[in-house]
Structure prediction request, 364 residues.
Amino acid sequence: MPTTTTDRILNFSAGPATMPVSVLRQAQSDLLNIAESGIGICEHSHRGEIFDTILEEAIADCRVIGNIPDEFEVLFLQGGATLQFAMIAMNFLSEGETATYLDTGVWASKAIKEAKKIGNVHLAFDGSKCNYDHCPTDDEIDALENVAYMHYCTNNTIYGTRFSNIPASEAPLICDMSSDIFSRQVDWSKFDMVYAGAQKNLGPAGTVLVIIRKSMLEKCPDGLPSTLNYKMVATKGSRLNTPPTFGIYLMGQVFKWILNEGGLQAIEKKNEHKSGLIYDALDSIPDFYTTFARDGSRSQMNISFKTKSPELDAMFLEESAKQGMSGLKGHRDLGGLRASIYNAFPEEGCARFAEFIQSFASSH
Ligand SMILES: Cc1ncc(COP(=O)(O)O)c(C=O)c1O
Prediction:
């Protein structure tokens, strides 16, 4: 059974995605017996001492990695990033108020759709007009004054675009970082809430990380059901009901792995290098490959591209699979090909893939 980073299949899946091998190994052992307790991680009470320590360490390590100031709460929720689309509006968009949204792709659009069920939405950037090929500069954003908040998505998983800057906003800034959280450093002075589904950069599906400014919690309406109210979840320290204990444990292990890798500064540098290897290979054969994202908006996590024809794309998939590469089919909304290379995707895998890109073009 392949168990090292190099002999496993190179998994380019957009999420759930590759996790660090050392984390998976630790989990293997902790599933049976964690911290010499004689009981596995999934079998411990969420209110027992073992889980107390896991939760405390996960929050503490998250704070260290992200350099998260004390004014923010670190919370673990469920319902995927998709439930956040609704919860944000339920908590922060009161009757008669308007929230600003930037539509930069499928997930940003879904957030807008959910918010519209709750209140008024002002669309300050409509990416559908440019086929979502880039993220807007401040000049392209038609901001409104006196809105409840502005929502955007830092990295568009499907189109492979990302914001290289943080959009200017006078309103509280709320951000979906599901597909690039902790891939680069974050300037917390600009944000009021950040959230991310775990299944790309943080661990397994089923847990959502929410990092929220404490002052935002005061705005949560008392009438909301408890599990949908950020203030209630924060008051109960993410244990309002049984939390996803295994997911939080694994996220905690991923945080320890990030620390071990040298923190976000080192991770950011590595991501630049990894994505650079692949973009350079694609750019070196411009009459064969086309990348989807415009220059300046290229994602370092998801590289969406295509060859000269759908038939060649299919052959690319077939031949790459024979080389032990998986998950390269583009999203059904966009077609073509996509390589997702989150933090845990190995550097040597990117180098191998860059070589494959070159050799495939030469032989076709
Ligand atoms: C940027 C982004 N936001 C939100 C989601 C939805 O996440 P979930 O399936 O956890 O609800 C995804 C899923 O891929 C995503 O990529």
User: Anything to note?
Assistant: The chain has two domains: 24-260, 264-363. The first strand starts at residue 10 and ends at 11. The longest helix spans residues 263-283.
